[in-house]
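I am still getting used to backbone structure tokens and would like to learn alongside you. To get us started, please write out a protein record for me. Once you have written the record down, we can walk along the chain together.
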Amino acid sequence: MPDVVVTGNAAGLAILLDRRGEGRLRFRQALRGSLDRVVREERPDALVVDLRSLRGRLSSSPRVRQSLASRLPVVFVVGGEPGTVHRLGTHLLSPRIDFVRMPVESEEPADEIVGRVERLIRHAEEETSAPPTPVPPELRHAAPELHAPQSGRLDAARVARLLGVPLAELARLLGKRPGTVAKTPDAPALQPGLRVYERIAAPLLHLAGAPERLRAWLNAPNPSLGGETPMKLILEGHGEAVAGLVERIALGEPA
């Protein structure tokens, strides 16, 4: 049975989660000591890190840095403060990281935490048993999810859906009428304008592993963009700047 260590100030959280785990997962409170020591000495299969007491200091928290460095599946439990999740920034790109909102006085999201932990452990086991085939560098610029199956061309409707924006908003950015774009979303005339969005999406999908993590990154304030969200710049017509940032991240260059 997978062993999940719960850290944080809410002592009853581990008991609650263990009860909800119903024998599928074993949840227990971390012993005293730093999280680094917990990972090194207790060797859990996953972590649940309660960040509700940190009140927004997520990006600089030693707990966050240690959890991410551990390479274990980690579910962060955050409170309901606005913007808390966005402060996790690029950490949301990791397929081994997830989060659940859970107000301090509520037990309702406990089942959600258990489900997220199970999913992350299953994903980690699949990675270990069957390493994914590396994507050749020459193909990492392409995102098949954005292409129409029959024509093979970029599809504006698929681009809008992946980015999480209305098709009419994407049509505005393309300088086209919404009805025209909706009628033929993979039209040859749209291809030049759509390419910048594939430059953004393809590396992010490769790094993040899931569309929801791509959208989380796009909507998180980014220090490399002066604290603005990448999505804000995209909607203001500065997709090239976001594409350049994503490509530098993918190449391991300073952002």
